Amino acid sequence: MSETILDVRGLQSEFRIGGRWYPAVRDFSLAVAANETVALVGESGSGKSVTALSILNLLPAVGARIAKGSVRFGGEDLVGLPEKALARLRGDSIAMIFQEPMTSLNPTMTVGDQIAEVIQIHRGATRTAALAEALRLLEEVRIPAARQRLHDYPHQFSGGMRQRVMIAMALACRPKLLLADEPTTALDVTIQAQVLALLNELKESYGMSVLFITHNLGVVAQTADRVAVMYAGEIVECAPVDEIFARPTHPYTEALLKAMPRVDRDTEALEPIPGQVPAITRMPAGCAFAPRCPLRAPQCERHPELLPLGPSATHHLRCRVRAPQESAA
Ligand code: ADP
Ligand code: MG
Asked: Which CATH number does the domain 4-93+174-279 belong to among 1.10.760.10, 3.40.50.1780, 3.40.50.300, 3.40.50.2000?
């Protein structure tokens, strides 16, 4: 077994709405091993970003809370850690890449200066050394003519190239864990897959783990090691990537596969999933997917647990129809 880098257990994150607390993430447990890429996949509103923000302790200070659970990183529980210690970790051992509109790219600075600044702050390098390292990083993320592009501003890059600049910036701190929340959403599927493949390659040489968040199951096919499918704040299925594609077992995972374009095969007719992810104020008491599920049965009125599927220790499922749960309450 390889070393566990991130170990989230029993996480429950809540928002206060109209004076009451509602969970947006529930009973969430996930471990990420050294050098592993785990994809967290689910439709918009499933709780992926709230999970990422909870891991980093970046939920809004008011009206949001981690109600239960622990987030162990390098043996330390980040929940309740003083802000100063967290801030150091966030810039250093854990790097984040967010969706384009929330990027940390500064439009008024050249990308070379921005990357160099990160290196100077985090690694105490001189400016000359930092600029040389910035160039090396731009080459590493395969920006063509990197030496010239060092002096360009973010708006002079295409979406895909900007994504690469952001990756270079994240790598500048040599993180142990890279958290990427829908970093490629604005890009077309082919470019998304290229960015992911690059991340995967860099992961090897940097010895880092990646938690990759996306609503598109299609783009993770060749790159993730494991996939956790999230719905209505819970993991509903989790398995090695090949297993997810060969034996998708939760009806929601099946629906996601049919609804999403893939890069590794011709797109067949896509079938949108009818209905919507329930609002956190209106969670069904039983299986949260039941109202949209073609396999809905009477036992779905009782909330299902996430349990190992068959003898496999690596495939977990939260579904009373596909995996009867006699022992579960
Ligand atoms: P995803 O990233 O999977 O699209 P999110 O994690 O952003 O989903 O959201 C999960 C749920 O939490 C959604 O129902 C969303 O409306 C709710 N939520 C997110 N942020 C807030 C907030 N600041 N206040 C209230 N509800 C929120
Ligand atoms: Mg999100």
From this structure: 3.40.50.300
